[in-house]
Amino acid sequence: MVAAYALVPGSRSNAYLGDDVGSYVVWGLAVVLALVVVAGILYALKARAKLLSDLTRARRENETQGTNLDALRHEVKSLKNTLDKRPVPTRVKYSIITLGLPRTGKTSLTLKWANPLAVGKDRFGITQFDTYERLVSRIQAEQRLVEHVFEIRDWGGEHVVDAQTELVTLEIHGMLLVVDLAPENASEVSDERVRYQLEEFSPQVLKFLFNPHMVAKCQTVVLFINKSDLLPGRPDDVEKRAKQIFQKLINDLGAYSDRVNIQVMVGSANSGHNAHVLFSHFIEKILPASAHDKSLQQHIGGSERPPPLPAIEKGNGKPL
Questions:
Q1: Is the pLDDT of residue 31 over 50?
Q2: Among the three residues 86, 111, 133, which one is the final residue of a domain in this structure?
Q3: Among 216, 220, 224, 299, which is least packed by CB within 10 angstroms?
């Protein structure tokens, strides 16, 4: 009967039991809510700590970058001051022209002896020519820096007549006249080729080339007989034979030896034989002694310096 009473709906015991369950639910929800709040606070604190850490690190990096930037600015300023103190180079150019008929090996020879650092194309009047530049020396005195440069003008063989006309007004310091013993890819000396070149550089043409304006500034003229490797024998015999082949031209050039230094060389642009001698020769004859820097003095005074070339005397083309 007691059990039956306990199960009667609306009884006092059931009311007490309902109140207890509700209290537990409320307290449970309160505890869960409190845990959620605590977790949120802990997360917020952790996030704040991370933000503070990131901010501190960013400030340190910014300070470091600022220090580096200041150092870079100081270095740039120091370099700028150094550059401002460096003298502006002044270039002194010495013009050397190369003349010859087509396919004589002029350009190959120029590239061998000049070893140019700059190559370009230029135009004088109606004639186009290639220009090559070779820095020869740098001379610094106090706040002045002077660069001495060889400017080599390689006139196209097909324009040799035009070049002769325009040379009347050009100021040149050296001339390289290139002839060869045979046409391109030939295996032996060609009398026809030699005869053609002798006609092209006849005494009348040479008279026009060696005009008063030209000889007033020109320090040396080199006749380079190219393709010597077509001749058999020892170097001395080859040189002698090549000069005999062009003896008429050598004799004609000798008529001007009292006005300008004239040299005859025998070599090969293909093998490089005697090509290196041209650079030293032009330095010796064109460049003033005051323009010789230490590097150039070592080059000229070194073991590679060739013996001086014999000049040819007036009239007969024989060495002095």
A1: yes
A2: 86
A3: 216
